Structure formats: structure tokens, C-alpha cells
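User: My collaborator sent over this chain with a note saying "see what the structure looks like." That's all I know about it. Can you take a look?
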Amino acid sequence: MKKKTKILYVIVVGCGKMGSIIANYASSEGHNVVVIDKDEKAFDMLSPEFSGFTI
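Assistant: Without extra context I'll predict from the sequence alone. Here is the result:
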């Protein structure tokens, strides 16, 4: 029996080492993710499969 998963809305502030790990994982699990960082180059740490939004 497959467990039903609730879709979450996740906001990650800071796309450093931990922020990118959290954002990538949440996105891969199908959650709606927004990542906020003042340095646009930080978003390079997100995986190519990341399906969320960046600000």
C-alpha cells in the first residue's frame, strides 16, 4: 500500500550548503519550493532537476 503524501509549500531562505540540500530534497519529493537568496550565483547549487522558484 502506497502512503499518501501531503504536498507542502516550502520557503528556504539562503541557498548555501544546507539551504540547497533542503530545497533539492523538498523539490524531489514533489513539494512546492521557493528559494530566496541575495546572491544569484548561489542558485547554481540547486540540482538541474529542481522544479521550484528562485528569488
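A starting point for your reply to your collaborator: The longest helix spans residues 17-28.
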